[in-house]
Amino acid sequence: MEYAGKRTDVVDLGGETDYSGYKWFQDPPSRPPPPPQQPPGPTYVPHPEVIEQNEMFEYALAAAPNVLYTRYKQYGQLGVLAWCSEFGELIDSLKELGFQGHMFVTTRTQALKTCEELLKLQLDIKMAIIVMYLSSQVARLRRFLDCDRTWEDYPKPNFPLDPQLYGSQ
User: Fold this and answer.
1) What is the crossing angle of helices 128-145 and 105-120, to 10°?
2) pTM value?
């Protein structure tokens, strides 16, 4: 076995090569030819159904903050709870669209904008579980669309964290 990594089949007979008349760096080495340009791939032309589906999602996402506010005004906190369930179904459909590879950038941008608008709404929700449910739905959509980013704009739940303070009120 050879451990040193040296070749043993070459015998050096000694003597050095005379480089005195050699002109160094006179001729540059030839460059390898550039690789041939590959023809561009076929451009992606989505089906009309995909375009229509993305337009419907963009419309639904643009209307979502108004629908949530209307449900809040009509039914109060329970309207927000019901809307969160419907929004969860919309998120599931958006995820399916994304996994199929048919989500457009405009749809993604509108979804992220909708998340910001939803959390900016001034809804007086007393039940912390509803605030947490709404925030979790928004977080679920945001994680799907942009998992590398961290958001800090979620509302703070309004419930006592210290049980001693809760009993004294």
Assistant:
1) 160
2) 0.69
